[in-house]
Amino acid sequence: MEITSITVAGGGVLGSQIAFQSAFKGLDVTVWARSEESKKRVQDRFDALYSTYKEEVEKLRSIVGTEKSHAEGILKDAKNATNDDVDRLLVDVERAYKEIKIETDLEKAVKGRDLVIESVSENKDLKIEFYKTLAPLLDEETIIATNTSSLIPSWFMDYTGRPGKFLALHFANRIWVKNPVEIMVTSKTDEKYPPVLKDFALKIGMVPIMIKKEVPGYVMNSLLIPFLMAAMGLLANGVADAETIDKDWKLTMCAPIGPFEELDYIGVPTAYHVVKNNPQSADPNSTMGRIKAMLETMIKEGKTGREAGEGFYKY
User: Fold this and answer.
1) 186-233: per-residue pLDDT in tens?
2) What Å distances lie between residue 154 and 66, 95, 173, CA to CA?
């Protein structure tokens, strides 16, 4: 089975990126938005991604034929590319922006699709309710993949109505630059579907990472989440401010960005949901409880990250 059409259910920070990247690589892409207000937010994200992709492609023009690509999700082999290739990439950006669709009717959004990628909020109960609604609307052959970043896919498989066609497909933020995609099955996933998702990942410029055993956070977030929690714990406990923590990390590890810059890319609400899912956050005197309270305050103040113009930093 070849995947040529997809629906991304949820057009948040990462859902919109998955959709735009897939459209950029030539797939037929629809995004399901929960309401007209959500639809407008998704369109705003596509407007921003349109500009970002054009900028990234133009940056490639100065290095084609000489250097390794800085955005392998857009162009993997820059050393063997030409300016004509860059021109074609700009055409692909224009086509993706014009052809991608946003639909508020879930039944219309998923009708006739090869793959539905669930990218709704990182909330177990919300995801379960979504799958209950989605299940009766799908064509028989449609595959479902969850992009959950910290929850167990097995928690949702029986609500999909097709556990054999359900698996996890996890992307990193800024996928045109950070292009691994982790593929993880449940105990009920039919063995013929991971290779289909692997081919899909390659088709849209990603590097498939096959996970052998189900684990919350996959590989990527099993490493990243404790790191970000440690940084937020230092801040919440008053050890140092965000800028100092980032500076220390970048200087010590020669890293391009620090943990709080990364959190602003990810979005404060996503971090909040991950923290809230941790039982220790129920204790307000614990480090996790202090992190939860800190993030709640930021969300109430509209400091939700780079996309909002302010998170841990102002933009």
Assistant:
1) 999 999 999 999 999 999 999 999 999 999 889 999 999 999 999 999
2) 46, 37, 23
